[in-house]
Write a structure and sequence with these properties.
By secondary structure, the protein is an alpha+beta fold. The chain is 27% helix and 16% strand. α4 crosses α6.
């Protein structure tokens, strides 16, 4: 139950805790991320790497936006913004320098297509594009290279991530996947 102010009058809090004027935004789905669920148990492709497992699923089930010969685009389960996707090689490699020429070319092409799809479908005004190579650089799954494409809009930042350690996402991932897959540029 929400607690807080309604028409400038406090509403009664039901349950544990001390009554106050704060509203609560419960995000229990984030607990999987906090606890590290779906993290690989090791560095090999057979050690539970989600980026090796996702391509085995249907597009809808795996949240795959598009598939290529060497790479695929997939929505991030823990997005910074709606539409946050990643471009991943099928091959289990940890470092950008390990990609061969066709993988490098298709990763670049899919990144460009992601920008186009997000501009077309969501009116993205800017982007953060990049890779975190290695755990010390912030890679959550360091053993399998993935490039982030995060759409941005003027005013898309607010106090929620800072104060509430919560991201507000206005659309379900499956709905976002369907919209982006439809807008994905074809050859």
């Amino acid at each position: 139950m929400l607690t807080g102010m309604q028409d400038s009058e406090p509403i009664e809090q039901v349950g544990a805790g001390v009554p106050d004027s704060f509203q609560r935004l419960w995000t229990p789905h984030r607990m999987a991320y906090i606890k590290g669920e779906n993290k690989p148990t090791g560095t090999g492709p057979d050690d539970g790497c989600p980026f090796c497992e996702i391509p085995k699923l249907s597009d809808g089930e795996g949240l795959i936006v598009a598939r290529g010969e060497a790479v695929y685009a997939v929505l991030n389960l823990y997005p910074y913004n709606s539409g946050h996707l990643m471009v991943c090689p099928y091959r289990h490699v940890a470092d950008y320098a390990e990609l061969d020429a066709p993988e490098t070319a298709e990763l670049a092409d899919f990144t460009k297509r992601a920008l186009t799809a997000l501009r077309t479908s969501a009116g993205a005004q800017g982007f953060n594009v990049g890779m975190n190579l290695g755990a010390v650089a912030g890679a959550g799954i360091a053993a399998h290279l993935h490039q982030h494409v995060v759409p941005r809009w003027g005013g898309d930042t607010n106090f929620m991530p800072i104060v509430g350690r919560t991201r507000v996402l206005p659309q379900l991932l499956r709905d976002t996947r369907d919209i982006l897959a439809e807008a994905w540029p074809r050859d």
